[in-house]
Amino acid sequence: MNNFDDAANLAAQLLARRWLPRTHPLVKRALIDADLWAAVTARLAGVGLKLVDNVYAEHVSVALLRPAETAVFGESGLAANNNLELPRDGVSLLVVLWSLIVLPKRQRQLNRADADGDQQGEMFAADKPLPAAASVSPVLSYRSLLADFGDQLGKKVRLDGNLKALERHGFITRRGEDIAEGPLLDLLLDYDQLAPRILDGALADVLARATDAVAGPAIQQIQAARQEQEEPADDAA
Fold first, then answer.
1. What is the model's pTM?
2. Pairing of strands 49-52, 59-64
3. What CA–CA distance (Å, rounded) separates 136 from 20?
4. Source organism's superkingdom (predicted)?
5. N-term to C-term CA, the chain
6. What percent of the chain has pLDDT over 70?
């Protein structure tokens, strides 16, 4: 009996490729077919994995289920700051890149705004389709990143080495001097946990001073919007 059905096919492709675009035929089916989604989830769970999806990202991937983490990494691995063997300055670089790319992207997606910040209609903006990640995701300047964070992240040699590692792991892509979002950047880092820690912490002020022509002003706008929401409303006259 042949058990290599669509669920097994999709699970195998995710294991082999690590991520697949949401436009992949089987992924598209799984996102609307509850039975196929459940079957893929069950296949992956059988080997300690789960399907990772995020409506704001353009790919899906797999990650370890919590019970499998101890078996795979051991107690010492779980106590480490990451399980990709990234050095501490590599993890710091990942957080900086996530902040400069994903925070502005998510804000534009929530506002249904394009890459230039234009609203897709004011009154009914929330009813507009969610912009594709590629259309609203900032592309960072390598030179600006080096100038702004090079001293804190180990100078040029360390920065270049860590950028290569992050690209190899699928967090970023490189286009000459530009740094863009990779398939896993908005999938494997938890926005709901990470965003408040960054925006409510000292790192937000550092990020707002970034000289990148796109990301710096975008972070400033996010901070300004948050401050407006936190300010008490003026008493009615």
1. 0.85
2. antiparallel
3. 20
4. Bacteria
5. 77
6. 86
User: Residue for token digits 């996530």?
Assistant: 98
**Residue 123 pLDDT class (50, 70, 90 cuts):** very low
Q: How many CB atoms lie within 10 A of CB 156?
A: 10
pLDDT in tens, 168-179: 999 999 988 999
- How far apart (Å, rounded) are the C-alpha atoms in residues 109 and 115? 10
The pLDDT, as a whole number, for residue 235 is: 47
User: Taking Cα atoms as reference points, which of 182, 166, 157, 200 lies closest to residue 93?
Assistant: 166
CB 153 within 8 A of CB 117: no
Structure tokens given for 124: 């009914």
Residue 141 DSSP SS3: strand
Whether the pLDDT of residue 8 is over 80: the answer is yes
Q: Among 140, 144, 110, which Cα is nearest to 128's?
A: 110
Residue that has been written with the tokens 């058990």 in this structure = 3
- Which residue, among 165, 184, 196, has the nearest Cα to 52 in the 3D structure? 184
The greatest distance separating any two alpha carbons of the chain, rounded to the nearest whole angstrom, comes to 77
CA distances (Å), origin 114, targets 70, 137, 153, 183: 42, 9, 31, 20
